Amino acid sequence: MTIELMLASAKSFVFVLAAMLPILNPAATAPIFLSMTDGASPTTRALLARRIARNMFWLMTGSMLVGSYVLDFFGISLPIVRVGGGLILASVAWRLLGATPATPDSRAALADAFTPDHAYRQAFYPLTFPISCGPASISVAITVGVALHDVKLVMSLARMGGALLALAIIGVLLYLAFRYGEHFLRLIGEAGTAVFLRLTAFILLCLGVQIVWEGVRELLIEITSVSGHLAIRANF
């Protein structure tokens, strides 16, 4: 029985790591984090990186464990979550695309304004949600959480243990990417950084639109299915 539990835990670890890491993708969101915290001191960025990684872990854990029950309680479907979250993500990406490059004077002003208290308020929204883990990752986490459940409580606990370990490792990777991503941007220079940030923001915008479209498509399929059932009943 112990070997079976260990095997189940290892399988869920690999499953969650393979499913969640490409969706969360810390390397892709690190430039957005650096752009939105332009002017912050290294200490403040380190504080933010820790808080965002911690918030991501708890948000994904909550989505896996109770996400489906919360949505059922409020009568909210996953397509609606995708539409709402995708709109927020696209809105943030649009603002990043239209942002003007920071001058030395504006950076100095931002450095004075971006205090640890300010960072604390922004740590969850928008830096954790929807930048670091958006509606797509929440939807995947809810789906993964449903797949990890088992009729045996001990087996479910073993699978959840492996899943939480995978989330913890992703949190560490997220922290490292946010904490030390600035060193990579220094290597490509100021012009390369500007191009890279705009490209990342555009990809984020496309991702938001894609999430909205997936939600709308699922809603249209549900509407078509309901209409078909009503038409069949009407014929009888």
TrEMBL record:
Q: What is its main location?
A: membrane
Compartments annotated for it: namely:
Cell membrane
Residue ranges crossing the lipid bilayer per the database entry:
53-71, 123-148, 160-181, 193-213
| Gene Ontology cellular component annotations, sorted alphabetically | plasma membrane
The membrane topology of this protein is: Multi-pass membrane protein
Coiled coil regions in record? none
Query: What keywords appear on the UniProt entry?
Result: Cell membrane, Membrane, Transmembrane, Transmembrane helix
**PANTHER family attached here?**
UPF0056 MEMBRANE PROTEIN YHCE (PTHR33508)
Q: Which family does it belong to?
A: Belongs to the UPF0056 (MarC) family.
Q: What is this protein called?
A: UPF0056 membrane protein
Species assigned in the record: Massilia eurypsychrophila
